[in-house]
User: Fold these one by one.
Assistant:
Number 1:
Amino acid sequence: DTEVTQTPKHLVMGMTNKKSLKCEQHMGHRAMYWYKQKAKKPPELMFVYSYEKLSINESVPSRFSPECPNSSLLNLHLHALQPEDSALYLCASSLGQGLQSQYFGPGTRLLVL
Amino acid sequence: SQQGEEDPQALSIQEGENATMNCSYKTSINNLQWYRQNSGRGLVHLILIRSNEREKHSGRLRVTLDTSKKSSSLLITASRAADTASYFCAHLNNAGNMLTFGGGTRLMVKP
């Protein structure tokens, strides 16, 4: 299995809602990442987990809360988002943090109303 | 910002022609990678070139790296309509803990 899966594919939420994005990989990768991508822009790193521990938080607002329950799963909990948070959220994984290439999931397209 | 620059931002060519995309970056790097993204989808890793390498080939792809100029290029030969996508370079910093993407080149290959 050389795939990173993400659910849901699309999500519409209001500014008062709480929702979660999920990411899963079964390649034995020990580093997992969340990126945010706006239209016609490159992905921007949000969080990095290495061996299930948060190793990088790129000054992301607290309304985004990552969680890594085990080595195969990565969640992104969303609460009280703003319309400007609407974007494509991409999950990626790599064998370890750094050096190797990253495998990306198809993304969750999020719309905040 | 440590984000790299890519040029051109958009490129339109006919099927069969070659496409060249350039990438520049600002910091010291461990390696440089190229990714492809179809519209609104996830990124697919194409090729990785290490800082001590100058050129690398993979099928119809040829990547060069000039660390003295902090620049890289991606050449796609004999392009096909299916090559239509956005192409991003990404560099890993020397600490090995961050991958930073360039602005991307949107390539359109007309049949």
Number 2:
Amino acid sequence: EPEVTQTPSHQVTQMGQEVILRCVPISNHLYFYWYRQILGQKVEFLVSFYNNEISEKSEIFDDQFSVERPDGSNFTLKIRSTKLEDSAMYFCASTSFGTGELFFGEGSRLTVL
Amino acid sequence: AQSVTQLDSQVPVFEEAPVELRCNYSSSVSVYLFWYVQYPNQGLQLLLKYLSGSTLVKGINGFEAEFNKSQTSFHLRKPSVHISDTAEYFCAVKSGSGGSNYKLTFGKGTLLTVNP
């Protein structure tokens, strides 16, 4: 069964460092998302991406965040200068017309020290 | 703006007992409703969804949920739980009836612990 895959599963970084989280959405999907879950809190929407551009972003998604689809298969989330409060589980998701649901990856846990 | 409230952060039950996990939402427009499950160290897996039609929705692993528009609820139920049902359960809502932009609003989650 097709699935969304994310790498790395866990990354530890120092505050101020750049981090790139990678996702491979399901191959025929057209809409891509990043969500995050700070430990003990809700899963929160960060950004949606369609047709090679951001279609919507939340207040959390400030200038430190960016997304890119560098080729036909990958979808990346970059945090330019990580802060302690960026420590969270980051979920990638994808969908397309008629599926009626979001398909999530297993998440990338980011720990900022 | 929409919001989702899961009233119980933790629900402990014994194996083979029935369980209900509560979810209430607020939205000024029509909604799609979802329950996701997260097993330890895994991603979010869709349990079931309400898009339209029958208000009683059946999902995987014997779970079902009922959409109640007047009470703005979408409670999840299972008549007899197993140890393997131990997981975190998330209720989510997508507002609007069309489009493929799945910006979901999630509840805080309910940790279901099934004890032998």
